[in-house]
Amino acid sequence: xxxxxxxxxxxxxLGVTTLVACSAAGSCLPGSNSNPTGNxxxxxxxxxxxxxxxxxxxxxxxxxxxxYVATGLTYSVPSESNYTNGNITITxxxxxxxxxxxxxxxxxxxxxxxxxxxxxxxxxxxxxxxxTSTSVVGxxxxxxxxxxxxxATSATLSLTANIGLVDLPVNTESGINALTPYYPxxxxxxxxxxxxxxxxxxxxxxxxxxxxxxxxxxxxxxNLLSNAQLLTGNSGSGATDLAKPxxxxxxxxxxxxVSQFSFKLQTLENGTVVATGSNVNTINVGxxxxxx
Length: 292
Description:
Elements: E1 7-8, E2 18-28, E3 37-45, E4 49-51, E5 56-64, E6 68-70, E7 73-76, E8 88-90, H1 92-97, E9 106-113, E10 122-130, E11 137-144, E12 151-152, E13 157-166, E14 179-182, E15 186-188, E16 195-203, E17 214-218, E18 228-232, E19 247-254, E20 260-269, E21 272-276, E22 281-286
Parallel strand pairs: 1-11, 4-13, 15-22
Antiparallel strand pairs: 2-3, 2-6, 2-11, 3-5, 5-9, 7-10, 8-9, 10-13, 12-13, 14-16, 16-19, 17-20, 18-19, 20-21, 20-22
């Protein structure tokens, strides 16, 4: 089958990307399948936006939804796709910990933005590549959401996700309004289960007011969302207080069949609620109508 018959792409909005790829880079788990090799279905989820000019670590998640182990994975930020002026690399721990993704497993990748040179608004691309001579393209599907690129040959398949860096807004407000959330307004639904997105919250004002050391996502009634997993940020009881330009990121799993997901922001100090936002942040989930 020709390569162009094996590709399907779907665009969403504003940069955050989940790509699903199948390649023969996997090996079979004992007892999971009689075939010794098969398609390892990999999904790469990244934030759509992150603050520029900040020394920080940007989280990405790679997930393997197949019955096969994905092996020999490497990760990079190619210099030719880095338009931020910053020194951005994948951490050595990520390279080591995420080289192998077990069947139905996931791993958190960290892209480290150095303090110098200072990054400016722009974008960079993170690439996940299975390094194996037997890897062939089986399928490439964009589940969601927006600006992305793909690199595939008859020998290898690379998952790529674009991440935009933006200036923090001018903000002199206090309380919950000292926070700026970054999330995609529209995503495409995962056809085979929950849809994952990364929501990031930056402290964008120096006048935050009452101290808080936790930022969390809640529903319209102020109840903690159980489907939001903390990825990065010094957030939680006992942590130091959060101040500009701190960033906290969550991996949010939107259940299958949900067409609209909403959340509010809430701050706490050592477990005691400080403030709950009045703004409702909404992510629309579109359906995928075409198939490979």
